[in-house]
Amino acid sequence: FFFQLFGCGASRVTGHQFEYKQKQVDMATAQFPSQTGSCVGQWCPSGTGLGHHLPPGAPPSPAAAKGVLSSKDEAGPKNTARRDLLIQLQEEAQRKWAELGAFEYNAPEDGESDAGTPETKFFGNFPYPYMNGMLHLGHAFSLSKLEFAAGYHRMTGKRVLFPFGFHCTGMPIKAAADRLDRECLQYGCPPVFPVPMEVDQEEQPKEEAKPDVKEQPDKFKGKKTKAASKAGTEMYQWNILASSGVPEHTLPEFRHAQHWLKYFPPLGKRDVAAMGCGVDWRRSFITTDYNPYYDAFTRWHMNTLYKQGGRILKDKRFCVYSPLDGQPCADHDRASGEGVGAQDYTLIKMKALALPGKLSVLEGKSSGVFLCAATLRPETMYGQTNYWVLPEGDYGAFMMGNGEVFIMAPRAARNMAFQDQTAVFGKVDCLLEMKGWDLLGLPVCAPNAMLPVIYGLPMLTILMTKGTGVVTSVPSDAPDDYMALQDLKKKAALRQKFNIKDEWVMPFEVIPIIHVPEFGDTCAVAVCEELKIQSQNDRVKLDEAKNRTYMKGFYEGVMIVGGHKGETVQVAKPLIREEMLGCGAAVGYSEPEKRVVSRSGEECVVALTDQWYLQYGEEEWLAKARECLSKMNLCSDDNLRQFEITLGWLKQWALSRSFGLGTRLPWDPEFLVESLSDSTIYMAYYTIAHILQEGDIFGKEKHTIKAEDVTDAVFDHVFLDKPAPVPCNISATTLQRMKKEFNYWYPFDLRVSGKDLIQNHLTFTVYNHAAIFKEEHWPRAFRCNGHLLLNNEKMSKSTGNFKTLADAIQVYSSDAMRIALADAGDGLTDANFVDDTANASILRLTKELGWIQEMLDPAAPLRSEEAGLFADRVFEAEMVTAVHTTLGHYGALNFREALKYGWYDLQTARDTYRLTCGESGMHRNLVLRFIEVQTLLMGPITPHTCEYIWGTLLGRSDGTPESLLVRARMPQVILTKEHMSLQMAGRYLQDSISSVRKVVAKLETVKKGKGGKAPTEGPKKVTALTMYVKDRFTGWHNTCLKMLQANFDTTNKVFSAETDRAVLEALSQDPEAAASVQGGEKMLKKLAMPFVQFKKAEAISVGAHVLQEKLPFDEKAILFENAEYIRQSLGLASFNVYLTTEAAGVAAPIEAKVETALPGTPAAEYRMEAI
Q: CA-CA distance, 861 to 52, in Å (whole number)?
């Protein structure tokens, strides 16, 4: 019998699926349903928190709370007493925090020895949410990471700045307001809509398997992790607002954009405060020129960049553009297609050599008619043998601004109209509409082609939503082209179906143009033959062939024809493109990589616009940005890689807009600053916002400092340490106070954000800080997280799997919701908020409150004499370990782990202690210490409940800010080897009892007789147990341990890469080791390596002391001291323990198998008696 395979089991590996959830979920769900049943109370008009049927004001007395906690839980959807108690505690805590200014910190006064280092202050911030609706659980998830971090740092004694602003810049609010206005003008106010409008669920086609639309191997394509449309199923703006809870009689006011600014930010403040976030609301503000103070700050920001020269330039560039809005459409301006950029093509002009049939009307109307094909591979045009069209596709002949006629898909012509290719910007002039059938067999002269004439042929896989609908064919290097051409050559019936003449197909053979070492001069042919592809319908194999040929062709291909013969494809490609553009054989063309829809509801194009650009990617600026990033803590290697990738591809960014809300460009007021560009350094504004706006988020009230007096020179003085402006209407004392606030709090220590902002906002933040501020004020850390799933499914209003922050607080209470948010997960992978976890937390929190009240009762059955029992010592060690481990995870921003060790595992240790003490009872001082430790450790995650315990139950609050739980100090411990040894010993004892209990159950099971006969023996009971303990490792075990010690880095807790090999070599050189194992050296290796891996994991977790030949604790002494506890737990009449080297051990019976004993795994002898 073995308790465990090896060792004493001190380093148990545990996951996050805790047993308590499974045990309590049903009861918790029955009592506290997540979305069904009635939830008592509505939001208080004051915005301070949730209303409820319990009396507001003073906190519930322990007696009143005890009445709720001790009452029998009645199943049913309306029983919300426990939830309501938590809400009452939450509202009282929030009232107390607001009255005492718990979260309001200023820079220290002169003379205080606090220089604003990371050891004394913490400034964390969160991307201010966009205020066109209510905050939801997704916001709360990212926000909770900052809230937990701020709470932790506050409870380590630091000054903490946690501000929160509201973003209103951009077009979404203005577009929604204008849309509502149009609805009211068209349908009345209130509107009477004719029929419900459905969302246009356009089927997303598969990527075209064509070389001309293949992504370039040399262009990074960032993964779009947030591709969900922001538009719901209710397409009318009136209905969208109504479904958000806006009172219907107020809806007409939302026709004016400024009303949105007045309505939603206060609700956002209400919800964040109700969540219990430790925000300094004095520093809150909204953006746009509606707030004159922030408007002045943004103007200073833009002027500072502009004056540096080369940071902001006006130029014509391709960008995603909304024709309806008349301006570029950035990520935050989109209903769908976030993260989609412009894809540049080379538009090949193939001149029509004849205009038969329907096309004859184009004769004489232009300087030439051209079929235009968009390609990403202009270097392959030498090998054209034909071109492809979609027979049923819609095409048109469009007059260009230079007098030429281009034949292409209407969608492509619409894009070109915004790229200075037509006579009037944005206007297409269609001379003739046609089908692809009309283009089959049309002879053209293709630029750079080695053949004088090629013809149009049918291809059924062309997508009319990508490119121009006309596709060049280069069968030498494109597997799809090769197989499609072969199909037409081999299948006369196919040619007959589309009226294709033989002379358009049969004479045309593959033309070698590029040599690829692995595949020769016709790589498409070689790969298709190698993969045995039979036709153009063999999609899977063709995709494989395409991937192989394109990558090899680009990176290894060498031109064997044309003016760049002998040059690599990488070198020749851009040169050939420029030559074709220069001689008029091609034109530049661009379109969105994927479909983009603006918030105004229109599909976007790519336009060539003359506007202001931020010169991201400029060599000197990029170098500074990289330097800034290199000094930051990005919390994970994955984050760093994403930032490095973004810095690699990010170039010019369109800065200006002509539609929406925001700040006007100071030097060109025709334009507004777009929404991502006014949001990169506003963290600095938080440091002085309370001085300028004095708690007024709109900046509209009469303030000590007038907005017009906050000039660029003032900001230069405060933020850049330039001389104070003269003259200045702001006093020198106030200016000095502003400088002190900025210099104390900056740089910020942490910015928490969703991972989707790495590709824009967060990288912009790095660029702008590097350009504007001194190096000492560059950001210190970013922490990015994944998105939030709700019950393992994507949150979506249309499916009903969605919760606003207000809903979640109302259903669960803030603290139960916060536990579920902490438990949802950390890191870049998407997290999961589980209703059952939140519901179970209601029950767990309130039951813990009930237990605490019972323990604080003077009549509680607790011991008061000296705490000297083994169980006491182990419990104290468990608490020390919990404090040490939990605080480490808080500091590392691993909040799920902090919750595990500071809540779940700590309570498990308490429950084990209670069980081990049995009738003698737990020790009063240790129980009080546990209550205090758990309350402090859980303070950052469940501050409301902990504030009640701290102030009301423990009586620690005296009415001052410093006596609040949220400002209390985390417990201080020093984790020693003795603590770890005690913890290991305690777990060894519990695991031993558990393992023995399983063996006893098996021994006491009555075995059935053979053939269904009655058992041959009657029931028996195990009445006595003797354990034989081996006190040290010997033989090959000791050899392994010595090698592990020699290869272990005790400082970094890592083993060398050669550890396993060194162990095996040592064993092979020890002949006695192999001789001691039945089966020889082969069996020895099988036994040794699991032991080695177990000990390695244990050493990494606990420390090097577990690699000694003896356990860190006296195994026999532990069992002997707890003999009575073991005996009672197992229902034994007697229990004894001996060393294997003692007389009793030497004389033990054979069935005890004493020779199998190892340290941590005793041998055992059981005595059974008939019942």
A: 36
Distance CA 135, CA 144 (A): 13
What φ, ψ does residue 878 adopt, rounded to 5°? -60, -40
Helix intervals (H) in 776-859 = 805-812, 814-824, 835-856
CB count, 10 Å around CB of 1032? Answer: 13
Residue 184 CA, chain-centre distance (Å), reads 40
Backbone angles phi, psi at 1168, to 5 degrees: -120, 150
- Give the 3-state secondary structure of residue 283: helix
DSSP state of 885: H
Q: Cα–chain-centroid distance for residue 969?
A: 31
Q: Which ranges constitute the DSSP H helices of 918-1026?
A: 924-937, 943-948, 977-1003
Q: At what angle do helices 19-31 and 835-856 cross, to 10 degrees?
A: 90
User: Is 438 within 8 Å of 432 (Cβ atoms)?
Assistant: no
How many CA atoms lie less than 13 Å away from 483 in the CB half-sphere? 26
Q: Give the C-alpha separation, 300 to 1000, whole Å.
A: 78
- Max CA pair span of the chain: 117
Nearest to 435 by CA among 404, 392, 375: 392
Candidates 403, 467, 461, 405; CA nearest to 434 is 405
Classify residue 730 by its DSSP letter.
S
Q: Cα 509 to chain center, whole Å? A: 52
Q: How far apart are CA 401 and CA 428, in angstroms?
A: 10
Alpha helices in 1049-1111 (DSSP H): 1059-1068, 1071-1075, 1080-1102
Contact predicate 454/351, CB 8 Å: no
List strand residue ranges (DSSP E) for 498-541, in order. 514-515
C-beta separation of 657 from 171 below 8 A: yes
Helices 539-556 and 523-530: crossing angle in degrees, nearest 10, is 140
> What whole-number distance in Å separates Cα of residue 414 and Cα of residue 391?
21
Find, among 171, 163, 100, the residue nearest to 324 by Cα: 171
Q: What is the pLDDT of residue 67?
A: 66
Decide: 237 and 176 in contact? Cβ < 8 Å.
Answer: yes
Q: State the Cα–Cα distance between residues 416 and 799, nearest whole angstrom.
A: 38
- In a 13 Å sphere around the CA of 106, the CA atoms on its Cβ side amount to 14
Asked whether 676 and 638 are in contact (CB, 8 A), the reply is no
Question: Quick one: pLDDT band at residue 22, thresholds 50, 70, 90?
Answer: very low
In the three-class reduction of DSSP (H, G, I as helix; E, B as strand; rest coil), residue 567 is classed as coil
Question: pLDDT, tens digit, for every residue of 783-830?
Answer: 999 999 999 999 887 788 999 999 999 999 999 999 999 999 998 899
Amino acid at 205: P
Residue-wise DSSP of 47-66? SSSB--SS--SSPPPHHHHH
> Which of 833, 832, 831, 834 minimizes the C-alpha distance to 786?
831
Tokens of 440: 């089959």
- How far, in Å, CA of 131 to CA of 350, rounded? 50
CA 1130 to chain CA centroid, nearest Å: 48
| Model confidence at 228: pLDDT above 80 | no
| Cis amide linkage into residue 447, ω under 30° from 0 | no
Q: How far are the Cα atoms of 256, 302, 916 from residue 661, in angstroms, in the given order?
A: 12, 16, 66
- Return the pLDDT at 138: 94
Q: Is 800 left (phi over 0), alpha (psi -120 to 50) or beta?
A: left
Find the range with the poorest average confidence among 543-552, 889-898, 959-968.
543-552
Rounded to whole angstroms, how far apart are CA atoms 392 and 604?
Answer: 25
Pairwise CA distance, residues 782 & 645, whole Å = 16
Give the C-alpha separation, 521 to 525, whole Å: 9
How far apart (Å, rounded) are the C-alpha atoms in residues 970 and 939? 9
The amino acid that residue 947 corresponds to is E
For residues 632 and 516, what is the distance between their CA atoms, to the nearest angstrom?
43
Give the span between the Cα atoms of 1118 and 1139, in whole angstroms.
12
